[in-house]
Write a structure and sequence with these properties.
Blueprint (H helix, E strand, L loop, with lengths): L1 H8 L5 H4 L13 E3 L9 E2 L5 E4 L2 E6 L7 E9 L2 E9 L5 E13 L2 E13 L6 E4 L3 E4 L15 E8 L2 E6 L2 E7 L10 E7 L5 E12 L2
Antiparallel strand pairs: 1-15, 2-5, 3-4, 4-15, 5-14, 6-11, 6-15, 7-8, 7-14, 8-9, 9-10, 11-12, 12-13
């Protein structure tokens, strides 16, 4: 308390000392950090009318979405890492994605707006790299076109962000490799988030979300 008071007297902002960032869980023996505990949305922030936990997975679902795309945000910024998650786009309807190295903003009454790299989820878009709220489609030509499992089975996403390079894999297949050489717009770090795309009327599911930090 004395340190904060002293800094305040000297005119320094104390927000960085008191910021409410969720502390990362401890890694397992292999270095993997679980971001979703399978029980509740601890560490995440999003519209409770859309996001819930059902039978051990995160469900994003609403009949009609107003105010544009919205996101379930993991509160801790991360930089170089491997991110893994499993997903289902129920009946292959709607559109979603996994944001990484992104930034949170606000649009009107929608306080869960995210901009940045997105590993896309949607018919014709699976595995592609899109920059939400920015440059749009960054990498749309597949290295190998991924195959999405039918009958609402779980698919796996693996995203590697290391330096200027990102790789996106679906079901063990490298779909996209991209080297962002734009020094003004390339993202070095940021938050992770799950997208729910307007206008709604579909369900997306996520589980087994984990990250391994890279040096």
């Amino acid at each position: 308390m004395k340190l904060i008071a002293t800094l305040a007297c000297l005119g320094f902002a104390t927000a960085t000392l008191t910021a409410d960032h969720h502390k990362l869980p401890k890694p397992d023996a292999e270095g993997w950090i679980t971001l979703f505990n399978g029980k509740d949305l601890t560490g995440w922030d999003g519209n409770p009318e859309i996001w819930s936990v059902v039978d051990g997975y995160i469900s994003g679902k609403i009949d009609k979405l107003k105010g544009g795309n919205t996101f379930l945000v993991y509160k801790t910024p991360l930089y170089d890492y491997v991110l893994e998650a499993e997903f289902i786009l129920v009946d292959n309807k709607g559109n979603s994605g996994i944001q990484y190295r992104s930034k949170q903003s606000v649009r009107g009454d929608n306080k869960w707006v995210v901009k940045g790299y997105q590993a896309d989820i949607g018919s014709g878009w699976f595995g592609k790299l899109y920059e939400e709220g920015g440059r749009g489609l960054l990498a749309g030509k597949y290295k190998t076109e991924p195959k999405i499992k039918k009958d609402n089975s779980w698919n796996s996403y693996r995203i590697t962000a290391h330096g200027t390079k990102v790789t996106q894999e679906i079901n063990g297949v490298v779909a996209i490799e991209f080297d962002d050489k734009n020094p003004d717009k390339a993202a070095k770090g940021g938050i992770i988030a799950l997208q729910y795309h307007s206008p709604g009327g579909f369900e997306v599911r996520f589980k087994n979300i984990r990250v391994k930090l890279l040096k």
